[in-house]
Amino acid sequence: MNLQKLLQMGQQVQTRLSEIQETLGRREITGSAGGGMVSVTVDGNGGIRKVVIDRAVVDPNDVEMLEDLVLAAFSEAQKNAKVLYEEEIKKVSGGLPFPMKLPGLF
Questions:
Q1: Which terminus of the chain is more exposed, N or C, with fewer CB under 10 A?
Q2: pTM score, two decimals?
């Protein structure tokens, strides 16, 4: 393979990665905790979009439980976003291991 073709392939992959990053930014992934009492929605890049807390778990005498539920919901949402990211990267790389991470993602 000549250098020109290799450079073209690199540009195509870079373009596709930019498209994936943009697409992931528009996707919404939700994680929840406490049987759905707390949910966190993130974009496909892991950025927080929304937090929903059921009034039933708001107890001023047990703030730690609410903090734990928010943290658990956020962690699940981020995990789900990472899985989505990895699936999209596999599509670009043809299933081959892709060690490069996009800046600012996971």
A1: N
A2: 0.71
